[in-house]
Amino acid sequence: MSSWRLFCAVELPAEVRKQLEEHILKLRKAVPDVAASWSRVENIHLTLKFFGNVALDRIPAISEAASRAVAEFSSFPIGVGNTGVFPKPSRAQVLWIGVSDPSGKLSALQERLENECAAEGFPKEDRAYHPHLTIARIRRPEGARRLADAHLQMQFPTTNIALNELVVFRSELSPKGSKYTAISKHPIRKQSA
User: Fold this and answer.
1) Bridge partner residues of 171 (DSSP)
2) Among 37, 48, 73, 155, which residue carries the largest CB count within 10 Å?
3) How many Å apart are CA 82 and CA 92, to the nearest integer?
């Protein structure tokens, strides 16, 4: 029985990807000598749930859970902006761009998705949800602090976007990096005027 690596995420609009690309280019120019795996901008998504390997016959259950999760929601705004690192600047391993949730609906949607997936037998994430966009993973500690500091000092002005679709993706790892394929798309209703 084969399986696919799956996750559930929100695609980003072109203008946000362009901002991310410009930010990454500036950082790579500012601190060129640090060993980091940079995210390909077309692969950057706002992940709501990562499943890992899922047996093929279990995939429809995830799509059904995603459909049920979005059913109660109408489109809502989130903000993409600010810079941060995990776990902390002195030992930075991940560089990220923040995601703000002014309405609280993103957290509510993520929690609803967790509950719907749990009802289908997929375990809940045991960590609190911190929405962010990963732009780089630092591979070696040399220079990590300089890269983290440059990233934290660089402005990433907030762009507000409407969240109107949840997508279940397949992730295929290859030497060229990850390839993501949409398995199912789950539109969130437009807000009625």
Assistant:
1) 5, 180
2) 48
3) 16
pTM of the model: 0.91
Closest by Cα among 112, 10, 7 to 52: 7
Tens-place pLDDT, residues 34-71: 999 999 999 999 999 999 999 999 999 999 999 999 99
CATH number at residue 155: 3.90.1140.10
Query: Is position 128 within any domain?
Result: yes
Residue 193 in domain: no
Sequence length of the chain is 193
- Of 114, 134, 130, 110, give the one whose Cα is nearest residue 122: 114
**pLDDT < 70 regions, the chain:** 1, 191-193
Paired tokens of 19: 């901002």
Instruction: Establish if 60 belongs to a structural domain.
Output: yes
Helices and strands counted in the chain (H then E): 4, 9
Domain region containing 149: 3-187
CA 97 to CA 145: how far, in whole Å? 17
